Give the backbone structure.
Amino acid sequence: MTSRSAAGTAGGNERRSARLRDEAAPLRAACLSHPFVVGLGDGSLPPAVFARWVVQDWRYLLTYVEVLETLASGAPTPAAQDRWRALAALTRHEELALHRAFAARFALTEADLDTATDAPATAAYTGFLRQAVARSYGHGVAAIVPCGVGYVSLAAALAEGPAPADARYADWITTYNDPAFAEAVVWMERELDACPGEHGAFDATYAEGARHELAFWDQLWRGW
């Protein structure tokens, strides 16, 4: 056992991600019952509203890639460094390409993406991520995990119901319900468990990340 894993076990941190996931459950439930997500699942979401997600999630992902690369630079093990770099490359080359494909299906041009700016909740979220990863490796991991957990949870819940008639929404659910995406989130949670720190060291960061998730969905629904 390495000193890093021993530190995590001694502090009970191997259970940290599960505890934080449980504590953030009310926020995830609020996301699942949010009108944007409900409309996505049943196909009633106005296309113009979903187009906001395409643009603003694009903006979010540009910062997300930066954060993944920073985590790769600060990760304490070569294996973690390699995994963060792989996730950054996957996001840059595949998920951003997916967003460009979604954009075309919602009458958005590449220029609409390239010239877009952050809406208020997006700017608050990305600013939080940058501050967290600058603070420490552990805080950076804690900041991004709620996003992955949220998307996996929402997509899994929506996949249990009938597929929406709008194939664009059905494809969103299929994309984020991919087992490979869920496996990446599990790995992130394990990395959070392995981060040294006293009980509760990253609780506030994780909770704030979960709150930003809900604020992001709310912004898309209400506009700005």
The domain at 48-222 is CATH 1.20.910.10 (Heme Oxygenase; Chain A). The chain has twelve helices and no strands.
